[in-house]
Design brief:
Helices cover 29% and strands 30% of the residues. It contains 7 helices and 19 strands. It folds into 3 domains: 2-143, Jelly Rolls (Sandwich); 161-235, no CATH class; 248-356. A 7-stranded mixed β-sheet has the order 14-13-15-19-18-17-16. Strands 1, 3, 4, 7, 10 and 12 form a 6-stranded antiparallel β-sheet that branches. The chain crosses the membrane at residues 178-197, 204-224. Residues 1-15 form the signal peptide. Keywords: Membrane, Signal, Transmembrane, Transmembrane helix.
């Protein structure tokens, strides 16, 4: 309820907008000036527009919005000089074919203070033109932020390795607001409002109903994400056998390394030490090496001390790895500095297999 109320709140911050009449053409040629400013580039394919006589307040919370009629330029160059500096700053953005591109300036360190001049640059192919309608600088309001959050929750992206242990439920893995936290916050607000309203007449069934409805709504986002992922999974793996599925998966390089190591390992009950600096690659290698007697020291020294190793043990190094191996002398350096003789069984661009020599 409170979330829906936020959508209706107009939270627009003070915006600065410039239309076709506000620009001065410093490079290029004006072809037509009406609803928009139609320009052709100079011989070098350049168009440069200025905003004369404007004192512009710069803020890291702003976003730059551009509106074009027809195809936009491939890139937009934003050029400015702050009132407290003689340095000229420049930033470029790719439009990706969007005729109404928006660029977030939150991470631009020099976009602050006051600017006495602002220029817009474009590069075009000779003989082409562009039509610019307006440019707007504004901080996003509540309505815009809520709309972005809802889009981030509904939009689909295929699963990534980072989703293995944590699923944030957002389009970008580490960018909130996250739905679970938002739902928990509004459940708490609803419960407090209900208890304050009913006081002694409050019933636990109503409390349970509020929590259940919120849980179902949150789970619906998860079920929708599963349904979308189903199509990607089906397209990638449908009709393939077990070994074929491994070959088209993201872990195929580690899997192939482990399978080749398995064929090269000899002995009735060999011990295999996994050496890798990567949590993901190390865990995958340990998984694919099953059912061998496998050891992996996660987030510590990649290899044990000399006293824990014995002839016939194997070491599977999986990149990225920092083991110190001297191929010419057949020596492997161990913590805290001991060296042992090893036999290289095979190596490829993903790793190598070593056997502790007798």
């Amino acid at each position: 309820m409170f979330f829906l109320l936020l959508i209706g709140i107009a939270g627009t911050a003070r915006a600065q907008t410039w239309s076709a009449d506000d620009f001065s053409v410093e490079m290029g040629t004006v072809v037509h000036q009406g609803a928009g400013l139609t320009l052709e580039p100079n011989e070098q394919g350049q168009v440069l527009l200025g905003i004369p006589g404007a004192t512009i307040a710069l803020s890291s919370g702003q976003r730059a919005h551009f509106t074009f009629l027809g195809p936009p330029p491939p890139k937009i160059y934003l050029i400015w000089r702050r009132s407290d500096s003689e340095q000229l700053f420049q930033l470029s953005f790719a439009t990706h074919g969007n005729s109404r591109p928006t660029f977030d300036l939150a991470t631009v360190a020099d976009w602050r203070g006051q600017s006495e001049s602002l220029q817009l640059g474009f590069r075009l192919e000779p003989g082409t033109s562009l039509t610019l309608v307006d440019v707007r600088l504004a901080a996003p309001g509540i309505r815009e932020r809520v709309a972005e959050a809802l889009h981030s929750w509904r939009a689909f992206r295929p699963w990534a390795p980072a989703d293995i242990n944590v699923l944030t439920g957002t389009l970008t893995f580490n960018e909130g607001p996250y739905p679970a936290q938002v739902f928990a916050f509004f459940i708490l607000l609803l419960l407090l409002a209900y208890l304050a309203w009913q006081r002694s007449r409050a019933r636990w069934t109503a409390v349970a109903t509020i929590i259940l409805c919120a849980w179902v709504a949150l789970d619906a986002l998860w079920q929708w994400r599963l349904w979308q992922q189903l199509g990607v999974t089906r397209a990638k793996y449908a009709g393939l056998g077990s070994s074929q599925k491994i070959q088209v998966s993201e872990s195929n390089k580690v899997a192939n390394l482990a399978m080749r190591a398995t064929r090269a390992i000899e002995g009735p009950d060999p011990r295999v030490f996994i050496a890798s600096q990567s949590d993901r690659e190390g865990m995958l290698a340990a998984y694919y090496m099953a059912p061998h007697n496998t050891y992996w020291h996660r987030r510590g020294d990649e290899l044990p001390e000399n006293r824990f190793l014995r002839p016939g043990d194997y070491i599977l190094a999986v990149n990225p790895s920092t083991i110190l191996y001297d191929r010419s002398d057949g020596l492997l350096r161990l913590p805290p500095g001991d060296a042992i003789n090893v036999i290289e069984r095979f190596a490829n661009n993903k790793g190598l297999l070593l056997e502790v020599a007798p």
